Amino acid sequence: MSKIKDQFTVRVLSVVRRIPPGRVATYGDVAALAGRPRAARAVGNIMRGCDRPDVPCHRVIAAGGRLGGYGGRELLKRALLLAEGVSIVGTRVQLQQFRVPGAPNRWGKRRARRA
DNA sequence: AATCTGACTGTTG
DNA sequence: CCAACAGCCAGAT
User: How far apart are CA A111 and CA A28, in angstroms?
Assistant: First the structure.
């Protein structure tokens, strides 16, 4: 069976565990907070194996406020978030309002592309 | 060590 | 809004 996880995994679990109720973080946010801003995919993989009750993996969603996955239980994920007070419009979470504090705004400063 | 996989993300059509 | 493509990352085989 597994031994100790890599530091990255430990950090990710730590970050997710610290997401307060009624808040959400995207995979990219968790990855960034864990020190690997481009490892959103890896975070998803870690979440896939998060069976720990102390890790609120349902508060980790996809970019743009989409629900992302939940081991085939996306409906439960949506229900849990709604129960915590997270507002969901259509299939999207209101990130602007419920995104975990401390998440870097990568959408605030994009300079004009094209010359 | 090489290859495949996937609860991701952003760009392009 | 959805589909296809490409880039990125860690874990499993």
Answer: 21
